[in-house]
Amino acid sequence: MTTAEVHRPLSPMERWYWIADQISPLNVIARVRVSGAVTTAALEAAAADLTAEHPLLRVSIAADSDGKNPEFVPVYSAEIPVRTVTPAAADTEAWEHEVDITELGTSLDWRTRPLARIVDVVHRAGEPGEYHDLILTVSHVVADGTTALALLRDLVDYAAAHTAGSMTPDTEPAAYGVVRRLPLPAPEDMLPSRFRGMRGLLRAVGTAIVDQVVAAAARPHRLLPEVAVDPHDRRTRLWHRELSGEQLEALVQRCRAEGVTVHGALTAAMALALGNIVAPGDSGRIGIGSPVDFRTELRPVVGPDDAGAYVCTVPSFPRFGAVDLWEVARDLNRELLRRKNFRQHLALVTLLRLATPDSVANSARTVALLDQRGPGNVCISNIGRYDFPERSGDWALSGAQFIAGISISGHFVATVNTSHGVLHWNFTYIEGTVSDARARQLADDSLEILSRELVRPEPAVRKG
């Protein structure tokens, strides 16, 4: 079968992510721990299989000399680089350091290479108990959290098959020229008809006006920068947290009893923690964005395994102060459901036709507007339960999770997924804009507030 390549202009949403990445790195990262022996050769072969399967992993980006009119073009060499790291024996969490220092802070080479790279953090190589933390970093131009985890899952499966020597013409696309996925149109070109063309644009503008009225009425607080950091100097950092299997089970049961979603509970805990920072001793509302996955609303429907970025962040304004966490969560769930029912997320995607600048050189006004009003100022991206396999070949797998870079879209972001029986809650922040101490406090306080509620007895009678 001949390969099918992507050669088209970037859509407004893709162009915005590309511009943001040039100002400050905008990467999506997935990580999993593999117990067993993994060779670089197996990873390189698996990476070749991955690029053969996914058209968006065989592109680079070309633009005019003034940085305008970017387009996807077939990459000259579709080799995803594999970097090996061997940390000190006692450094069991070295993967966090690699993500924090290198992967979040370094853009991918979008001009000449595929928009992905791999890091293999090797522990106890050649010894009993050998394990590897595999890190896949993908540009947000072609991936979101769901995409990154799906690509990492496929990478591990391909590498396991190479290790076992079980690749066949049906399973090894790189060796036999088999491409299992055809290029998809740009996300905006797959929107329902009512969100395309002039009609869709007018609807998007109307939605934006209504949203501004709602925001004005809510008078939400925002997480203000501790230090003004120039957009081009912004750097994403990481604090990793998680809920154990026992804590997760308690959370799920309590959410079920309270009639709220896990996302509602996590966001409410973050709202209460943020309130203690932005207005200590006071009460009010805080703006927190929630990315909405719109794959199933596109035509054709996009599968969770297809490469691409298919999320849009909608705002919410949960309460903080002397309020009950579960009441805050219920209010938040109702607000997000209303926004989804009105399909506000699709209207916002449409609005990018007007909002996205044409180049980095002309982006300053948009960046300033995001700092003042953008829904990603504080954000929690929760993809829920992601069923990453527990085994692949002879390997045991654990700790699958994703982390998001922020670039210029906000100050403080949480990413959440539940895999391998653990809820992974990663907090990223813009260094300086949010100090290391404040970011750590927000992460710890969010976890503490939620954990405290899980051991508190349920009320005999609930409101609402």
Automatic annotation (TrEMBL):
Q: Give the matching InterPro entries.
A: Alcohol_O-acetyltransferase (IPR052058), CAT-like_dom_sf (IPR023213), PapA_C (IPR031641)
Q: Which reaction does it catalyse?
A: 2 a mycocerosyl-[mycocerosic acid synthase] + a phthiodiolone = a dimycocerosyl phthiodiolone + 2 holo-[mycocerosic acid synthase]; 2 a mycocerosyl-[mycocerosic acid synthase] + a phenolphthiocerol = a dimycocerosyl phenolphthiocerol + 2 holo-[mycocerosic acid synthase]; 2 a mycocerosyl-[mycocerosic acid synthase] + a phthiocerol = a dimycocerosyl phthiocerol + 2 holo-[mycocerosic acid synthase]
Q: Does the keyword Glycoprotein apply?
A: no
Q: Which residues form the Phthiocerol/phthiodiolone dimycocerosyl transferase C-terminal domain?
A: 241-385
| EC assignment | 2.3.1.282
Could you confirm whether the keyword Metal-binding appears in this record?
no
Q: Which top-level group of life is the source organism from? A: Bacteria
What keywords are assigned to this protein?
Answer: Acyltransferase, Lipid biosynthesis, Lipid metabolism, Transferase
Main enzyme class? transferase
The family line of this record is: Belongs to the acyltransferase PapA5 family.
Q: What is this protein called?
A: Phthiocerol/phthiodiolone dimycocerosyl transferase
Organism encoding this protein: Nocardia acididurans
